[in-house]
Each structure stands twice: as C-alpha cells, then as structure tokens.
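General statements about sequence and structure are easier to judge against a single worked case. For one protein, we set the task of working out the structure tokens from the amino acid sequence alone. The sequence in question and its structure tokens are set out directly beneath this paragraph.
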Amino acid sequence: MNLGRFPRISLAHLPTPLEPMDRLSDFLGGPRLWIKRDDCTGLATGGNKTRKLEYLLADAMEQGADTIITTGATQSNHARQTAAASARLGLPCHIVLEEPAFEPSESYRTNGNILLDRMFDAIIAPRPNGSDMDAEMETLAEQLRGEGATPYVIPGGGSSPVGALGYVGAALELVYQASEIGLAIDHAVHATGSAGTQAGFVAGLEAVNAGIPVRGFCVGRPSAEQDAMVIELAERTCSHLGLPGLVKPSHIETDDRFIGEGYGFPTPGMIEAVTLLARTEAILLDPVYSGKAMAGLISMVRDGAFRAEDNVVFLHTGGVAGLFGYPDAFSSAD
C-alpha cells in the first residue's frame, strides 16, 4: 500500500511519540499502558485532525480551491486545526459552529478552541443546536460561489475517505514504532466521534495484518449508530486505497458506556480520568473526546478486561485547548 500516491502537504510534526504510562499502570495495578501522542502533532496545540488535514487541504489545493469551509461544535478541535491550517496556507476559512445542547458558560463561548479560531482569523457562523450542518455548509458554499470564490467543503471532523488517509498513515507509523522497540501491542483504544480516525486507523492496521483489536469509545452516539458510521467510512476509505472489502464489520468495536448525558457534557468519569492522567503522567486530555475515552480505558482495567502482561495503547487524539472552555467542571477536582 503506497500512501505516497495521494496528494499531501506537511502540517504535522511526525512521527508522534509512543510512550509508556508506567505511573498510571502502577496506580491502576493493571496491564502495561502506552500512549500514542497525537496531541503532539504540533499545529495550533496539536490533535488528530492535523493528520487528516494534510490530505484534505492538499486535495483542496489540487482542485483549485481558494476558500475552506468546515463545521463542528462551538468548542470543536477540528475547527480550530482547520482554521490554523488555512491560516498557514493563506486561505480564508469559514467555520459553521453548532451551539451546544446545554446552556454554555461564558468560558465555553469565548475561551478554548473558539478563542483560537478567532486568533487564526476564521470567519465564524454560529447555528442553533440540531441544525443540519451539512446543509448549512452547502448553503454557505453556494453563497460564496456566487461571490466568485471556489470553496472546498470539509465534513465535520475531516471524516471522509480523503481525510481518513491520515489515520491509515498513523496506523502504519504505530506498527513501525512498536516493531522498532520490540513491542507487541495487544489492544488499542481511542475516542470515536465523526468516525474518520477509527475508520482510517482500522483500515491501516488491517492493511498490514497487524492483528491489533481497536476499541473506539463513543463520545456522542450509541454504539449501533457509531458502528454503522465507522464501517461505512472504512469501506469507502478502503475503496479509495484500492483495497475494497478489506475491513469487515467484525473489525469495528465501539463502546458507548461513557458518553454520559451526551456530546460535550462533562461526566464524573471524565473528570477523574483527566485529573488522574495529569497527576500521574503530566499529560493533559480534553473533556469531550480523550477524557471520556480514558475513563473507558480506566474502567476496563479496573474490571479486569486485560491480562497483566498485555500492552495496551491509548491513542491520544488531542484537544487540550478545550479544557479552557470547561473550567467549572474541574473547579472541585481533588
């Protein structure tokens, strides 16, 4: 499989580190825990979307685009990284942001990712919760075309077959790093939302027959819906790679037990996980994605889901800027 045949621009600091979390492992009394640091991709505080944007913005440039449009929640990590990448390339960036289902605090509305969006000079278009965001982006695209622009629309999370190539590459990178240090990975876990990370990651692992099961911890949808999204995108990604039929439904595993009240709502497990990782490993998670995924991993360790000799890799998808939109959630952390 040759990813080099797909257009790509360099935005990320790669490879990202693969590190042991020995203090967390000792604290939990569980298996050997590792972390793949995709919070260290470098662009605008880092995160997983930067890998996707390397392919998406290269595709945009090939198509002659002069304007970028994307979408996300108010505190979207993807929107922040897209705004930053667009600024790097000198492209105007419009981000259509969906208001949360909860009553947001002043910090949520003005701090964290949205503060950075404004610093990168993104043009922000808020929409009510529950809006059809794909339709909203297309309406905006039509408006901009009428004004003479050539917009390129990036779906939420950068989750398309083009964007998912970033996580095909991440899977190959992880397998190589593990081989270099003689690490046999028994399990990998991460947060799953718009499906592009899991779809690309599983496709990459299957392409090299890595034999590593992947569990995605849902952040907004029930497992049945998330499974369907991931397999559909994984199948389209494999077709884009010229490997149709590579990923099967049996390769997709998600877990919806740690969502709480819904997308973006803090949970006690997330607060514990973010606080615990900060105090044992000095690594910061985010409240929407990686914090809930780490809560899931901690629960699995406590429930005895792994053997003592297992090596478990947590894929850190980034999002630290989002912490600053949720200061009240951590005000009573002890």
Summary: Strands lie at 18-20, 32-37, 67-73, 93-98, 123-127, 151-153, 187-192, 214-218, 253-255, 311-316.
